Structures are given as C-alpha cells and as structure tokens.
Amino acid sequence: MKLFSSVHDVTDIKQFVQDALDLKSDPHAHAALGKNKTLGLVFMNPSLRTRLSTQKAALNLGMSVIVMNMDKEGWALETQDGVIMNGTTVEHIREAAAVMGQYCDILGLRSFPKLQSRDEDYSEDFFNKFVQFCGVPVISLESATRHPLQSFTDLITIRETWKGAGTPKVVLAWAPHVKALPQAVPNSFAEWMSKAQAEGMVDFTIAQPEGYELDEQFTGGAKLVYDLDAALRGADYVYVKNWSSYKDYGKVLPASGNWMLTNEKLRLTNNAGVMHCLPVRRDLELASEILDGPNSLVIREAGNRLWAAQAILKKMLS
Amino acid sequence: MKLFSSVHDVTDIKQFVQDALDLKSDPHAHAALGKNKTLGLVFMNPSLRTRLSTQKAALNLGMSVIVMNMDKEGWALETQDGVIMNGTTVEHIREAAAVMGQYCDILGLRSFPKLQSRDEDYSEDFFNKFVQFCGVPVISLESATRHPLQSFTDLITIRETWKGAGTPKVVLAWAPHVKALPQAVPNSFAEWMSKAQAEGMVDFTIAQPEGYELDEQFTGGAKLVYDLDAALRGADYVYVKNWSSYKDYGKVLPASGNWMLTNEKLRLTNNAGVMHCLPVRRDLELASEILDGPNSLVIREAGNRLWAAQAILKKMLS
Amino acid sequence: MKLFSSVHDVTDIKQFVQDALDLKSDPHAHAALGKNKTLGLVFMNPSLRTRLSTQKAALNLGMSVIVMNMDKEGWALETQDGVIMNGTTVEHIREAAAVMGQYCDILGLRSFPKLQSRDEDYSEDFFNKFVQFCGVPVISLESATRHPLQSFTDLITIRETWKGAGTPKVVLAWAPHVKALPQAVPNSFAEWMSKAQAEGMVDFTIAQPEGYELDEQFTGGAKLVYDLDAALRGADYVYVKNWSSYKDYGKVLPASGNWMLTNEKLRLTNNAGVMHCLPVRRDLELASEILDGPNSLVIREAGNRLWAAQAILKKMLS
After folding, report:
1. How far is A59 from chain C (nearest CA, A)?
2. Average pLDDT, rounded, for chain C
3. How many CB atoms lie within 10 A of CB B70?
4. Which among C38, C44, C158, C266 would be 20 to 30 A from B161, CA to CA?
C-alpha cells in the first residue's frame, strides 16, 4: 500500500477490519517490522486523536516518529504553480514535500479545507501535490474532503460491537453546530458505509436537513431521509456529526426541527450505539446524557483509532 | 502508585528520596521496565525543566514519550459540566482526558491557575477531572495549587547536599517579582518541608511580608517570620521564591523592606545553599552574585528534576 | 569534537566529507553508538530541514531526541549580563543553557540574527553564551552569522556529484528577495568553499551586486565578481542565495540588472548543477524551470543534510 487517502485504496475492507482487530488483541506482535523506519506526521491544522493514535501505532510497530507542525514550527506553503513567490508563502509544496520524503519512510498529512472555494477544496490540490512530490507512501490524517482513518475506525467499531443477528442499520445523523465545519468526516463515513453496505456489512441511511446534501460521489447507495425521527426508527448505530452545506458551499443553513440527539430520541432506535468522531460540543451537537450514558461508543471509537492507524502502517511496511 | 499530585501520595518520603538518588547513580538500571509503555505529557502552559526532565526520565526507563501542547497544537477545553458548548471551547475535559488515556499508559498534566477565582483554582477542578476521566495513572507537572515534582526534587537536593551534623534549617524566603505568580511552588514546598520536618529531616521556616500568608493546609508546623534577616540567621538552605497573595487572591501587595537575597544577606546564614525552582529573574528575585557564586544550588536542583521524575515513573510502572 | 559552529571546528574536511558519504551508504552501521544518549534540539526560530534531518540522524545512531521550541513552548530568554530582569524576558541564558545541559548529552541550537545591530549579531553573543553555559557539546543549527551544517552538506553534495576532471568551478550567486535575510548561509558557504579551495577541492567565485560584499573573514581567497553573466561562464556549480547587505547592515539595497538564475543564464555555464539551501522563493530567487529541470540539485542537497548531521553527531559521540 503506497497511499491511504480513501476507501478506494483498500481492496478488502472486511479483511482490513479483521487485521485491525488482530492488532488490538496483540499490539506488539509486529514490533520488529518498523525497525529503522521513520514516520513523519505533518500537521497543517490542530489534532489530538489523530496525532496521538498515529504516533502510538507507529511506536507499536517499532518505528520512530517525527512530528512537524508546519503551521506553527514551520511556515506558509505555496501550492499554486506558476506564481512569483513574492508574497507571504515561504516555500512551495513541491520542495517542502520532496524534502520531507528525504528523511521519512512514510508520511502522514493533515490539511483542512478553507471552505471558501468548493472547486479548490474538492480538487484536493494540496493533498495530491504532497503525495505527488514527496516520493514516499502517504497516509491522510484528514484532507479537505475525507478523513479515512476516522471512517475505517468507525467501521472497526461497528464490527467489533455488533452482536445482533443480521445486518445493523447505521444512521449518519446531521447535528447542529455554531461553526461552519468541513464535510470531510461525513463524506468519508458515507463512502465507507456505502462500500460496507455493498458488501452486506451494514444498512446505511443519512438523515439531514434539506440543503445539507453531500456530494453524491460519496453517498452512492445510501438512503437519504430529511426527518431525524423517521431515520432513527430501528437504528442500531447513530453516527452524529455536523457539517456545513456542500451545495451552498461552506454555509451554515437554517435547519428546522430539533436535530440534537437526546435520550428521548434515542428511544426511537433499537437501543443504538451512539458514535461521534470527536471533538464534540456537548448539548449542542449531542446531549450530555447520551455521552455520559451506556449507549455512547465515542471513547471506544477514539481508542480504535490506534488500531486503524496501525493496520495501515503495517500494510505500508509489509 | 496511581497518582502523584502531592506529598500525600507518597507513603515514605525518606525511602522515596533514596530511590531517586539510587537512580541518579545508575540511571539505566531499569531500562526494560517501560518497554512498550508510553508516557503522554499534556501541557496547558509553557515548560522547560519539567518537559525535558520528564521526557528524559521516561527514556531512561525505556518508555516512549508523546508530548501534547494542548494550548498550541490542540484547542480550548471545557471543564464545566452542564453548559451548552456553543462558545469558544471545542472539547470537554471528559472526552479529551478519556481519549488521551486510550493511547497512553501514564499521563502527565500541567495546568496553571488563572489567579482570578481562589475557589476555582483551589478546587483543582481541571486537574481532578483530568485524573477522574483519563483512566490511567497521572503525574502532576504542576497544577493550580501544587508542583510536587519540584518539591520532591528540592527535598532530594537538600538530602544530597547536607553534610552537616543535626537537622538543617531550611528557610522559604519570599522574593519580589513584577508579575503575579501562582502559589503552587511555595504551597508544595511548604507541604513537603512540613512533612520532612515531622520526620526529623529538616527544620522549616517561612519568611514573607505580611499579607503573603499561604493557605494553612500547606504550612502546618512551619515557623512563620515576617523579617527576612531574622529568618536567615543560622539558615542552612534558603529557598527563594516569589508568590502572589493568597488572602487578597492573586494580588501583588506592597512589601516593605528589601526581600531580594544578596551576598550581604547571605552572610547572615550558616553559609547556606541557595535554591530556586527556576526560571529566576536575576537581580529582581535573586542577586546575580549569588546565582553565579559558590552557594547556588539551582542548576543541581534542576538536574535533580530528572531523578525525581524517574523515581515516580518507576513507582508507577512497578 | 565538542563544538560544531564553523568550518574551523573541522580538522580534515576531505575526510569529514568521506565520513558522511560512508554513512549515506550504510546509515545504521553505528546504531549502538548513541545508546542511552539524548540529543536536545533547541529552536529559537522555525525550521524544516534542520529539524527533521538532525532528528533522523540522531535516530540512525540510536540516540533519543528531545525537541524544544523555546520561542513557542517556552519563553523569552535574557542574554545581557548585569540587567535587572523586570521586563519581558523570563529566564537568563545562563540558567536556561545550564539546565538543558543537565538533561541532554549533546545540544543543537538555532538562533537567527535580529538584523538590527551588526555588532550584536556578529558577536554571536547568544550562541556563544549558550555554548559556554550548557556544559555539553553543541551543534549549531544556524546561528546569527553561520549555518555550518548547511555548508558541510553543500560540500558533500559537490563531492558526491562531481564527475568531471580537474577542479569544479563553484559560484555563489546572489539572488533577489522581498525580505531582508541573514548572511549566515552565504557567510558559511564562503567559509567552507574558501577552505575547500585552499585544499584544491574547488575553485570559488562570488557573484553579487555592489553593496552586498560579505564580511571578509568568511571570503578569504574567493574571486569577487559584480557581473552574474561573467561569473557563470564555465561554472560547474551555481549556489543561488539571497542575503541582505553586511555593509549597510540588514538592508535590502537596489540591485541593477537581472540576478535571478534562469535557463537562459544557465546556458552560460558548464551545464552547472544548481544548488540552494531552501526554502526558495520560486521565480523570485530562482526560476521554476531550473528547479523542475535536470540541473537542480536542491532536493539531493536537502537529503544530504541527514548525512552531514549524522557525521557530526557520530564524531561527538565517538
């Protein structure tokens, strides 16, 4: 594996989930695999779970890790070609990426969208150029339009916890927020769940207010419902997440009705497990009573980030 | 040991000091103890000595270390329960702490007081919630009201350097500063010295201007003197430190007389060793002539931070 | 080797270059040398190549690495002696350096000039005091007036790529920029090339506009040319770099003529390899067509930073 940027980079998601769960049961089984190998983690934006879990995953495989907070310890990067660099950008991504590839065996990159131009963000220009010029395998630590480490983790968590008969019903439920957030997490989740649905692993529904439709390249096969209560009926997993509008790009549109998940709404489900990628705004996106209650899977989900990252690193090292 | 937040977490301080000195004489004797274990160091505030010495201590024990500057690389954390998180805090301490505990075997936390509300600071709400929710052993890297790694180091340094007969006289001497500083270091020092006095290891005096009395929960058994010169007579160790008022909380009160330690004042002592936790403001808190002279113990003291941290980590790993 | 701050700290540069190239061909041959040793990297200013390559070099030797971004994770340091520290500086370099030396076996320090006072910058007061007070071997990660790791790398790259008969002609060519940059890189490059010229390894020319003459302590033996085209004729290596004026200290002086290297100008050379320390401003300092073309050595040069750093660390550990 030379690139992990979306579900399309994985050939067999069922096996890949199993690989991660095997690592969870025996974390240090491959401690020699990463000997003398270095993982470079490049952050253009803040991180907590991704930073810590990916570091720990690499350490479990015997790799060393170098973290580079490019935004804070480095400088602004230019991505456009053909510009005279007489402004505020100090180095071009062509050089910066190539240089990082000189010192690291695998690189991870986090780079958020600016939410100003849909074309720019959805071109994944920054991420793609980094991959193109660095010359080593790359793991997305969340790009402008996807967060595949998170979505892989989410599928691991569903597989790990699902003890029912048949196929679990999974609902991605839009939630309110005060800020305009990227679509990366819901895009990626939809993409992974659509693939999982195609393989008979889940039954997948998206619940959202009108105007919040995601790009259809990610949602193929998903049922789309504009009524949260209707979507929740019979749900086995509810994945709560805010995102800004894709159509009216980057905007926070008014949403009629109550979209925050509460215990009252949870009673409509099949005693569903509640998931969130974190960080979560308590009592704005998701009720505290759920986060502090028995149905919350959010901490287990965060813990599983480690095994998702380790499975990918293992694949790249093998 | 599951928690190191104050002297009360140590059952036998004499033995604990000896453990640290044993590690100093053979730093790598326990290099296998931390195999496959990760220490996470979480900083809400800047650090030099604590950051470096605790990292090195963990490395000496074979642990790996992940540093998280939450204030710079992460985001603002909410600590209050029951609030709708529609403001500037991005994640609740409940989730953030629990998540960090998923990736680390031991966590260290630094979190300074705001010096605005005495009740809030002295409740140690932030530190205690972190301990409560992270689910793994925690070392205080300085909290709102205590800096136990520093005070343990100070006791190690006194034991290591005291060659006299009998019990050394230790004076905690308030010093001037231009900023309002926390009481954490003097609180903690007083707490450790009071315990050490109770065990016959030191004779402990606090010298300070009126209005700078510390919370009595930390100073039990200490002699309190309002005249620096009187306190210095016969002193074997002078621990210089500024702090803001506890009574008139967080305020810098006017102090009559000269409270900066100089060579002239040092002549009143029993050729005392001079200590300071650092960073120190030269010629404001403490005269350069002392820092550059033969009585200064400040660099040795800083070096001993390593063995204090290593002794605690060793205890937690054992 | 106790200090690496300039070419004067190296006794045999030919052998030293060979040592680096030997490490490049067998990076992990000395993986036991750094066991239980810690390298501390102290940054007062941003870094990409230096930070990553020096970390990786230390890891290859089995050392552990602690990075300290003093400007971001720490606080402002005082360097002047005899001042009452009642301003914004929190700690004196005397204490800060000594403390870092307590935890690290080797220290690296990056500290840029302020470009306000030539006397202050060229005294190397900050760097020298750090060396004086830390008590352990020190590597310059770029100081006010020199960047010896870079220049050592440049010599390695020339030796590695030169396949011609005789002595290669090396031209240091001033280039335009929008900001006032330090003279550290050209000073250091000139110093290393002058030494290399004295040992018959290169033939060295400096091309620059009038007013940009470097301090003569660095340029002894170099030919000085004020006409870029004339200098380029017969060049085997062109080292492109901007710097601000040394004479009219820290100023960006007007430069008549076109000083940006392009393919057209490159045709004047002996099909020269083009070098730059990076980061480079594309199409301002150096044409994109060169950076993206076959004559560019900049990525290889950046990659060689690793072997330069490893050769120095190996020397210090031996």
Report:
1. 13
2. 97
3. 21
4. C38
